[in-house]
Amino acid sequence: MKTLIDADYYLYRAAAGSEYEAELTPDVWTYLCRITDAKDAFDAEIARIQAITPDHEIVLALGDTTNFRYAVYHDYKANRRKYRRPAGYQALRDWAKATWNAVTLPNTEGDDVMGVMADAGDVIVSPDKDLRTIPGLHLDGEEITEITQAQADRNFYIQVLTGDSTDGYPGCKGIGPVAAAKLLNGCNSEPEMWLAVLKAYVKAGFTTDFAVRMARCARILRPDEYDHHKREPILWCPPAG
What we know:
Layout: E1 2-6, H1 7-17, E2 19-25, E3 28-33, H2 35-52, E4 57-61, H3 69-72, H4 89-99, E5 102-103, H5 110-117, E6 123-125, E7 136-140, E8 143-147, H6 149-162, H7 177-184, H8 190-203, H9 208-218, E9 226-227, E10 232-233
Parallel strand pairs: 1-4, 1-6, 4-5, 6-7
Antiparallel strand pairs: 2-3, 7-8, 9-10
Helix pairs in contact: 1-2, 1-4, 6-7, 6-8, 6-9
């Protein structure tokens, strides 16, 4: 069994927490990182997680340099391009890859790596609510909780409706989590949920193609949604029914 960790998140946090400003010469300031402090912070987080899942193998999930969603929706994460990464982040990431069992899948994010690799009994560790669209065991604080297939599917369709401003895809504008959950009330299958989602998009003046693209942005890949032979994601398609 594995503990699948959203390493990009924890590495970023460790680097940011170890960054400081320094004056190189009068009137010239820069950002520096105490990389040893960043490594210690990351190791401490891994140790905490390992203590909760002692019988599981630690696996770091890392995103590729690009991912398929950029081709699905041109503004995907465009809002993040103006922000710099913490000083030392890449060096810390390279160290983690050399030190731990780390996995990257071409053209995917770290979230997708966890979703594709997740088997029964594995534990997913990420603060990102997007991972709640993956059925299975999740570490929530210090407790392990289970998300059923039905819950994961419902969480996914809520995400399709609400979009994600952090990731830069809008969803069906004007629909928040409460309204999205209400729209899905009474739906007992994926085809029913997708029909409710599609009706909301059409009512708001959007096309079916746009709704599908939003769903593909929201979709965290699951075990059968990555072609390991071709080394590429299998895009989500509306359920038949």
